[in-house]
Predict the structure.
Amino acid sequence: MNESWIKIIEAAYPMFMESGYRGTATADIAKAAGINESTIFRNFKNKENLFQASIEHYAKKAIKIDFDILEYSGDLKSDLKRMIKTMFQLTLDLIPSYRLLVKRSLVNDEILKGIEDELINQDSLFSHYLKGMVRREMIREIDSEIVTNLIYSQVFVSSFEHLVAKNTDTFQYDLEVRIEDVTNYFIKLLLKRGD
C-alpha cells in the first residue's frame, strides 16, 4: 500500500458512492487524485479491482475503531455514552457503503464475507461490554445480544436522519444531542429496578 494507492482509493471511494460503479470513470478518478490515469492501472488491475479495494478499505477502516471493553469508569452514563458514541462513529462511516454492500452482485463475495465477519466481531465486542456491565451490577440482567441489536438499530436510524438533515453549521452539536438522546433512552431501559 503506497502513497499513490491511498490517493487513488481516497479519490475513488466518494465518487463510487455518489455516482455508482458505472457512472464513475477512471479518468475522473485520476483527475480528482491529481495523478495520471496510467497510475491507476499500475496500482489496480482494472476499474473493478479498484472498486472492490475501495469498498474493502473504507469498510474495514470504519470497523477497526478503538474501543476497550475492559475500560469501565464506574459511571453508567459515561460508559454507555462512550459505547453509543463509538457505534455512531462506526455507523456514520459505514452508511455511504450500505447501498453498495447490500447489492451482492456488485461486491466480491470474499470482501463481503470479511466485512460481515468483522461486523459480527464488533457486535460481539459490544455484547461483551454490556455483559461486563451486568457482572459489575451497573445494569440489570439483560440479553446483551438483543440489547446490542436494539442500540444499533436506534443508532442507525438516528445516524441516517442526522446525515440527511446535515447542516454544516450545527452538524457536530446535533450529533452530540443525538448521542445524548440515545444514551438517556438506554440508561432508562437498562437501569436496575429500584435505581
In short: The chain is about 75% helix and 0% strand. The chain has two domains: 3-58, 65-190. Helices lie at 3-19, 26-33, 37-43, 47-63, 76-101, 109-135, 144-164, 171-190.
